[in-house]
Amino acid sequence: MAIDIEPMLASPSSIPIYLINGVGTVWDAQVAATLHCVHGISGLRVGTLPGVSSQNGFLGLPITLMQEETAYLVRQGIAHLVPVNPNPTHSLPTSAEVQKYSAERVRRLRELEASMRDLEVENARKAKAKFTQAGEAAAAKREARARIRAEKAAKGGVELFEPEEPAPTSKPIAKTSLEPLRGTHFHDIAPHPHFPALAHLPSITSLPHPLFPFPSSARDRALLATFTRLLSLDLRVGLGPRFGGEFLVYPGDYLRYHAHYTSQVVVGEEAIRPAEIVAWGRLGTGTKKAGLICCWEEEEGGEEDGVEFYSLEWANFG
């Protein structure tokens, strides 16, 4: 298959994924949240905190993406790849760039703090004004009722147990919408890297590419087609090698559900041995998951259209 290397401009709304040694990585928390909540892409957190003893429970940024996840995002126009210069002497940002980025971050936080303080002061002022106004109105009503009773008593027409006049109902308070904060922790996702010195080649918007040669073979296309098809069925897909499969398939967010299937991808007319079927069935039962056989046949109508699924569960004899 010919590899298209013609450069194309990324969409302004496209998410940057930094390509480091052929692996797509995400370094921004907002981007990670967008991929997870909107596009169903979770990736794998690999960042460590040296001061935390339990590293496995506190992994964070950066997030590494599977080849299928990266290719899916690029082909759907959701993201583009930003190749990162592997030479450390040129990859590291300069002191001026670090200071500029840090100053911008501090400025955003200070704007947020100032806007929150202004909002608290304004809310306190409005509450105090409403309280004072309500107190003055109540005092005026009491004085008016006392004056009326005094006038009636002076005229001799007041009764001993004359009921008080009902207090008039107050007018409903109009709802006021708060103005949006000028500063916020969230910011627009720029389609270019924060440090331009990190990128040494144009952005990659079409695959396969010499720096990311996936999908290039029939099996690569089968994996990508299976991944795309599963996502189109509102399923979540994760890494499956530790459970003996290509993918782990979740019925929803993997933070809420356990995986229901461990998948095996079969390409075209590839033969399946009976021993493999038995092994896949027993493997799924041993891991409390059903086996999912994904058969892919390349078609002209679209790669994901040629995927068929068969569930497999192990049953005892006798």
From TrEMBL:
Keywords: Coiled coil, Lyase, tRNA processing. It is an enzyme of class 4 (lyase). The active site is at 250, 258, 289. Residues 227-299 form the tRNA intron endonuclease catalytic domain. Pfam families: tRNA_int_endo (PF01974), TSEN34_N (PF26577). The keyword Coiled coil applies. The keyword Disulfide bond does not apply. One of its GO terms (biological process) is tRNA-type intron splice site recognition and cleavage. One of its GO terms (cellular component) is tRNA-intron endonuclease complex. It comes from the Eukaryota. Its EC number is 4.6.1.16. GO terms for molecular function: nucleic acid binding; tRNA-intron lyase activity. Residues 102-129 form a coiled coil. Residues 15-83 form the TSEN34 N-terminal domain. Signal peptide: none annotated. Belongs to the tRNA-intron endonuclease family. PANTHER family: TRNA-SPLICING ENDONUCLEASE SUBUNIT SEN34 (PTHR13070:SF0), TRNA-SPLICING ENDONUCLEASE SUBUNIT SEN34-RELATED (PTHR13070). Constitutes one of the two catalytic subunit of the tRNA-splicing endonuclease complex, a complex responsible for identification and cleavage of the splice sites in pre-tRNA. It cleaves pre-tRNA at the 5'- and 3'-splice sites to release the intron. The products are an intron and two tRNA half-molecules bearing 2',3'-cyclic phosphate and 5'-OH termini. There are no conserved sequences at the splice sites, but the intron is invariably located at the same site in the gene, placing the splice sites an invariant distance from the constant structural features of the tRNA body. This is tRNA-splicing endonuclease subunit Sen34.
